[in-house]
Fold each of these.
Amino acid sequence: MDFKSSDTIPGPRTEDRLPHTAEAAVKIVIVGGFGVGKTTMVGSVSEIRPLTTEETMTQAGIGVDDNYGSASKTATTVAMDFGRISITDELVLYLFGTPGQERFWFLWNGLFEGALGAVVLVDTRRLEVSFDVMGRLEERGVPFVVAVNTFPDAPRYPVTELRTALDLPEEIPILDCDVRRRASSRDVLMTLMRFLHSLAMKGALT
């Protein structure tokens, strides 16, 4: 296609432009098993229209994907979700939601690259899925907090029991959240930032 000198390439929408006061940007990944709420969290908290790579689920996934507790889902993330939120006038978080289906986990390494921290979303109906997720973060040296998405039909457990079940040390924060609510999702991100700050103060964050 030939462009004329009078042609213009549209730029980002006004509401999508990075605030001029922003001085620092931090990459955060949101990880978890299939159907745990990663896409919903990015969408609820992002101040820009989120980028999603959802595709319609097909019969190809039958017998391959574990969709327990998510039988009503008709679409799934196949690459990533992307959003942005300004924590302060100076600090901006770039949010990358990872695909939850195990056959797409090979994409995680690229998404983890350069990430300062992570949110591990947990569904108490499928705690076992979280072990591989947290193991991959530990292998990459990415600090994380654990957010328990409060599905209506999911069992509730005290934090002490969850910590034991997930084999997490005391210093890793665990909190409940409702990823459909912007304020709740933002609280999770603020908890992660406070955790990262505490690690930096201890010299444990490089």
Note: The first strand starts at residue 24 and ends at 32.
Amino acid sequence: MSQYVLNAEVRETLGTGASRRLRRADKVPAILYGAGKDAVSLTLEHNKVIQMQEDEGFYTHILTLNIGGESVEAILKDIQRHPYKPKVTHLDFQRVDASQKLHTKVPVHFINEEAATKGGNTIAHHVTEIEITCLPAQLPEFVEVDVAAIAVGATVHLSDIALPAGVVSVELAKGADHDQAVVTVNAPKGGAAEETAEEAAE
């Protein structure tokens, strides 16, 4: 797993005007909270943030913030971007406590889609990420779904996905009626396979 390390400075001057000045100086205002400690306002280097945010792992890995010589583990909870410029305008980080469960989202990686679309089948993605809870040490980088293993006309739901040990789906924990559809393999339009799939679904 890649290492994501960001150097940060404690931000003493707060407010909209101060944040605007920081952004003009190629800095990004941020906040760090959680683990029963007071929230801390931070400043990060914009160029480093822009570089890291292009990597999917930045949103799911446990990050290291170097704050005045102290290393703090955290996860990214929110990222705000400029509406049309390639700029990050604010970051929210949550401290990680090894003994406390995280509540976050991880991406779904769909594999073997080329095999599943042979013969004109199409794939419908219903979700691109799954909301989970787990201890920091159990946090997966992503959840993988093998589309080639899905029968034509079938839909994979959250309950069909084998999550890593210790990882719990937030939606499924609410009950069986929250068993969301994840991906469907559809037969070609008007094909005999599609009619068979529709009959099986009735």
Note: The helical segments are 16-24, 46-53, 113-116, 170-173, 192-201.
Amino acid sequence: MDRMTTSTASHWLASATVDPAVHALRPDYRALLITAEGLRPGPSDELSEKWLSAAETEARERFGDGPVEEHPHLAAWREAFRGFGAKPQRTRPSAEALLRRAGAGLPRVDRLTDLYNAISVGHVIPLGGEDLDHYTGAARLVRATGDEAFETTASGEPAVEHPAPGEVVWRDDAGVTCRRWNWRQCTRTRLTHTTTRAMFVLDALGPMDDAALTAAGDRLSEALAESSPGVVIASRLVN
């Protein structure tokens, strides 16, 4: 992407699409996309610890030792995964995977990832972040042909995988950026200690209404503004 301004952020957000084949699978799906420029990246710190600790406490109070997958939004995501052939007990929706770890402690990754993980857990919503400086072209959610490249690591070494035909994936012009809707991000566009421009995807299905989705986005924007004073944020609801 070119250097982002308010107008280019709006243009880029407007170019994002959800393929009709995905909507045919889940007509209730909506994506809230948020771009942020002027981020302050780096390792986990006091501020990201504050947000993660609060999310852990909230999750423990909400779920206790109960099965997190019975939460209506997570149950809907399990159903969506089954709809394109994934087995959610093996490849869990991202929010469920995080919530299962909240009791013992969420991972501390870096300050930006920690912040969006805290919002994901607090609002029970799949949420991912991408480095826009490594993004190529428009973001689109599609059902894969199986030929697309997905850059990852295997045994600590760079590797390229391919999604299964029909799998729901986020992609750009260079390949798949996130497999199985929100299960695993590629290495090419993941957030790092040098990320200053990012795009965040908040995934919602029927049990989460637009008001709750917007509230999650507002909370993420609040966290980003606290961690990166002066950050410029834009958003778009794709439905």
Note: Residues 1-5 have pLDDT under 50 and may be disordered.
